[in-house]
Automatic annotation (TrEMBL):
Name of the molecule in the record: N(4)-(Beta-N-acetylglucosaminyl)-L-asparaginase
Organism, scientific name: Enterocloster alcoholdehydrogenati
SUPFAM superfamilies linked to this entry: N-terminal nucleophile aminohydrolases (Ntn hydrolases)
Entry-linked InterPro entries: Ntn_hydrolases_N, Peptidase_T2
Domain of life assignment: Bacteria
One Pfam family of this chain: Asparaginase_2
Length: 318
């Protein structure tokens, strides 16, 4: 059995690429890296990689992580600029005995020394998004933060190896140097090939307040189905935040166990995810809450067409 699951519709093309590799007996590490790179390289997905939304100084700072569920090796980068595929740098760091999480200039020096591709990640389209948001803020006191759709994935190959990975440009117009949950083990991601893996997307500042990805893996280890584990962990932490702080930020988590079974839970409306498992073609689902449970429905052709139309529509400056 093999499978791969990812946050958001933007992961579909990456999932399709990984599916081809996994069908041929490919490695879960290679498949998940290729899948995330597909998202990072597409300029119209404005929360990941090339074309990602900039910080308040109009710089694109990227966070990414990779974890090997066989060895529990972890690699991560945070606030890295001007490199094309942060997930690949994170995977390379996972092979180091120490210095597995590098940030800013240190991450950039490592990437340069290792020969990773330098690239200006700020696109003209992202500049327009930035300038429009600045004008909107002046006119209507709009809060700058939005666009925090991390791509997170969990992958299982036919040999039973599991991996997970994340990549994001973080909050739109964040403070320079801000880091969210995505490169933080246990919060943004966690995987153990003996059990399964999980990954998160949402408001990193709130997701980081709990080790939700790890908690889902722990619950799966106790025998819970990934869907049960996701719902229990997300509902509990959402409730805790609201009781202690009066509110909870966006939080959506995906999971897959070592049998290829999967689950998804969210505290928002309109969360989408992509999944492919042996015997099932890659598909995009939408999740909604009904009576305290998360119900998944296949995205319609109309929804899929509108998604791409919206994201690739020409932009004009306000």
């Amino acid at each position: 059995m093999w499978g791969i699951i990812a946050t958001w519709r933007m992961a579909l093309e990456g999932i399709e690429k990984a599916e081809g590799m996994l069908k041929e007996g490919g490695d879960a590490g290679d498949a998940i890296e290729a899948a995330v790179r597909e998202v990072e390289d597409f300029p119209f997905y404005k929360s990941v990689g090339y074309g990602g939304l900039p910080n308040e100084e109009m710089e694109v700072e990227l966070d990414a992580a990779y974890m090997d569920g066989d060895t529990l090796d972890i690699g991560a980068v945070a606030a890295i600029k001007d490199f094309a595929n942060p997930v690949s740098i994170a995977r390379r760091l996972s092979k180091e005995q120490a210095n597995n999480l590098l940030v800013g200039e240190g991450a950039e020096k490592f990437a340069h020394k290792e020969g990773f591709e330098r690239k200006n990640m700020l696109t003209d389209r992202a500049r327009i998004h930035y300038r429009n948001r600045k004008k909107e803020m002046v006119q209507s006191e709009l809060k700058p933060y939005s666009g925090h759709d991390t791509v997170g994935m969990v992958c299982l190959d036919s040999k039973g190896k599991m991996t997970c990975a994340t990549s994001t440009s973080g909050l739109f117009m964040k403070k320079k140097g801000r880091v969210g949950d995505s490169p933080i083990s246990g919060s943004g991601f966690y995987v153990d090939s003996k059990v399964g893996g999980a990954s998160a997307t949402g408001l990193g500042e709130d997701v980081m307040k709990g080790c939700v990805s790890y908690e889902i893996v722990r619950l799966m280890a106790e025998g819970l189905h990934p869907q049960e584990a996701c719902e229990k962990a997300v509902a509990h932490f959402d409730r805790e935040l609201k009781e202690r702080r009066g509110k909870a930020g966006d939080m959506s988590l995906i999971a897959m166990n070592n049998k290829g079974e999967w689950g998804v839970a969210t505290n928002i409306e309109g969360f989408s995810f992509a999944v492919a498992v042996e015997g099932q073609k890659p598909a995009v689902y939408l999740t909604k809450q009904e009576n305290g449970k998360c119900v998944h429905e296949l995205a319609t052709k109309e929804w899929m067409e509108n998604y791409m139309k919206t994201r690739t529509a020409p932009l004009k400056e306000l």
